[in-house]
Structure formats: structure tokens, C-alpha cells
């Protein structure tokens, strides 16, 4: 055996880019735009999947950092650290998260209600809202994210995605279906924003590679900020490949969605945690060994 060969091999091994998970929905397009425009895209391995799958892959160690449904984050927060300052939320109508129903909500008593497995947060929120409206005994079933197919079996569905956005803006597309915006319903109930997705890293990764986590976090914040500055141009370019016009997309990116995670959003998140049985939830965005600076 030639001495040193193993060491040389080790040195030649290519560094591995951080694996970062985004949704395949339009809601992540501003971040994609920003990551491309800042060239950070070159330094990460960006993976696209549904929100629920991103959470599973993050927990399984297949991703290092990802946007995950807040419902999954709350269930697994002993293993996850929240990235501060960034999320997918709305302070009122979100447009892309809804209950789509064949009948008005109050008529769902005893009917079949589908929860798209891709959107666990929409499902939890819809259940809470129905309970609050005293709609008793819908039979909850898990469904695919194919809205039309799910409604063959069920009377209503809670889900997120670009199809929901289309229903929000196109009355003709939705036919006779009733569409209830989950961000708007939550806001009317609590007066607070609703956080649908958070960015998270596994606790062990944050402890092992704090530098990498800070880099990715910084890249996401910079991407978000640049995208918001360039929103008109971003919407115009994105509209070339979508069924939505630029005005709709700019509104969606800048006024319906809110990518910040400040005190109001954290209050909304804490309230949702409380309503879903996580009474002990407190916001900790510093992580192990204070990977992130405390919020000041
Ligand atoms: C605001 C959105 O929220 C999404 C909804 C989620 C859920 O229901 O679990 C999870 C992540 C978010 O991406 C959206 O996709 O438009």
C-alpha cells in the first residue's frame, strides 16, 4: 500500500453542498429567484418536493435545511431548530391554502372531508376552524393533492398549491365549488397572521455544522429580500410560464404571502400551537450553542 494515498483520496473528495428543500409551488418562486440572482444557487443543492415530503426528508437526514409544514414542525420540534426571520405566512387571505367544498361549510356536518396529505397544516387548521363553527362529525380522510380526484370521493378538501391559487383568482375555474381561504378565516378568528410553513434544520446538524446553517440562512434571507425588491420584474418573468398574470403574481408574492417571521407571526404561530395541543410551545430561534443570534 502506498503511504498517503488514502489521505490524498480524502483530500480530493469533493465537498458536498448543503441540501436545501423547497416546495414545488409558486410560493417558493421568490426564494428561487433570489437564490439565482445572488448566485447562492451555485452553493446549495436545491431539492423540490411537497411540504409533507420535505418534512419527512429533513427528519430522515436526506435534507439539511427545508421549508416544512408548521404542523410537522410542532410535532417534531425536539429534533428541529427554527430558522429565524423567515417563513411562509399570511396576515389575512393567503390565496393558496383553502377549504374547497361542494357545500357551504355549515353543511359539512356528517360529510366526508378530505385532507390532502401534502398539506398537513391546512388540514389541522381546517379541523380547528370547523370545530369552532360547530360543524360536528365530518369524517376526515386522507387524500392525494389531486383536488378534482379527491372531490370524487369527498364533499370537501383542505389543501394548498397552485390549483388552489387558481381557484382563488378564477371564479370560472372553480365552477360551483365554495372556496374558503384559510389565512382569512384564521385572521378573522384570532386577529393574527397564520404561519403555514417554517424553515428548519435538524438539531444535530445545527450542532455539528453551525457555519453551514448560518450560511444557508443568510442566503435565504438575502434571496427573500432581493426578490421583494424586484417583485414586479419577478412577477412579470414568472407569469410568462404560468396561467396567472403578472399583477396577480405580484400581489400573491408581496401582499398575500409574507415571508417574514417577526413578532406578529410568532404570536400567530404560538396561538396555533396552543390550539393544537402544544401548550408548552415557546419560540426558540437560537438553537443549540446559539447557532443563531437571539432575536433582539
Ligand atoms: C402558504 C402555503 O403554505 C403551505 C402549506 C403547508 C401545509 O398545509 O402544511 C405547508 C407549507 C406551505 O408551503 C402555500 O403553499 O401556499
UniProtKB/TrEMBL annotation:
**Catalysed transformations (reactions):** chorismate = 3-[(1-carboxyvinyl)-oxy]benzoate + H2O
UniProt superkingdom:
Bacteria
Give the pathway annotation: Quinol/quinone metabolism; menaquinone biosynthesis
Keyword Lyase set for record: yes
SUPFAM superfamilies noted in UniProt? Periplasmic binding protein-like II (SSF53850)
- Report the top EC class in one word: lyase
Q: Does the keyword Protein transport apply?
A: no
Q: Provide the alphabetized UniProt keywords.
A: Lyase, Menaquinone biosynthesis
Q: Which Enzyme Commission number(s) are on file for it?
A: 4.2.1.151
- InterPro entries with a match to the protein in the record: Menaquinone_biosynth, MqnA
- Protein function: Catalyzes the dehydration of chorismate into 3-[(1-carboxyvinyl)oxy]benzoate, a step in the biosynthesis of menaquinone (MK, vitamin K2).
Q: Which protein family is named in the record?
A: Belongs to the MqnA/MqnD family. MqnA subfamily.
Known PANTHER family for this protein? CHORISMATE DEHYDRATASE (PTHR37690:SF1)
How is this protein named in the record? Chorismate dehydratase
Which organism encodes this protein? Streptomyces thinghirensis
Gene name tied to this protein: mqnA
Amino acid at each position: 500500500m502506498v503511504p498517503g494515498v488514502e489521505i490524498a483520496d480524502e483530500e480530493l473528495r469533493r465537498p458536498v453542498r448543503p441540501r436545501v428543500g423547497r416546495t414545488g409551488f409558486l410560493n417558493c418562486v421568490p426564494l428561487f429567484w433570489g437564490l439565482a440572482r445572488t448566485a447562492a444557487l451555485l452553493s446549495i443543492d436545491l431539492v423540490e418536493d411537497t411540504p409533507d415530503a420535505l418534512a419527512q426528508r429533513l427528519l430522515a437526514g436526506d435534507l439539511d435545511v427545508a421549508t416544512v409544514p408548521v404542523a410537522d414542525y410542532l410535532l417534531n420540534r425536539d429534533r428541529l431548530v427554527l430558522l429565524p426571520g423567515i417563513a411562509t405566512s399570511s396576515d389575512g387571505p393567503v390565496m393558496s391554502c383553502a377549504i374547497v367544498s361542494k357545500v357551504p361549510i355549515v353543511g359539512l356536518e356528517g360529510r366526508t372531508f378530505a385532507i390532502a396529505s401534502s398539506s398537513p397544516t391546512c388540514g389541522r387548521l381546517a379541523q380547528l376552524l370547523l370545530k369552532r363553527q360547530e360543524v360536528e362529525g365530518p369524517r376526515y380522510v386522507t387524500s392525494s393533492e389531486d383536488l378534482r380526484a379527491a372531490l370524487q370521493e369527498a364533499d370537501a378538501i383542505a389543501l394548498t398549491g397552485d390549483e388552489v391559487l387558481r381557484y382563488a383568482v378564477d371564479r370560472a375555474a372553480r365552477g360551483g365549488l365554495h372556496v374558503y381561504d384559510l389565512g382569512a378565516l384564521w385572521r378573522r378568528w384570532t386577529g393574527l397572521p397564520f404561519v403555514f410553513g417554517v424553515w428548519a434544520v435538524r438539531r444535530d446538524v445545527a450542532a455539528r455544522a453551525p457555519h453551514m446553517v448560518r450560511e444557508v440562512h443568510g442566503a435565504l434571507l438575502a434571496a427573500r429580500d432581493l426578490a421583494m425588491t424586484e417583485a414586479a420584474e419577478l412577477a412579470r418573468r414568472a407569469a410568462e410560464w404560468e396561467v396567472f398574470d403578472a399583477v396577480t403574481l405580484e400581489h400573491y408574492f408581496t401582499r398575500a404571502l409574507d415571508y417574514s417571521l417577526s413578532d406578529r407571526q410568532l404570536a400567530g404561530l404560538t396561538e396555533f400551537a396552543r390550539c393544537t395541543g402544544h401548550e408548552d410551545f415557546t419560540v426558540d430561534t437560537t438553537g443549540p450553542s446559539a447557532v443563531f443570534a437571539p432575536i433582539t
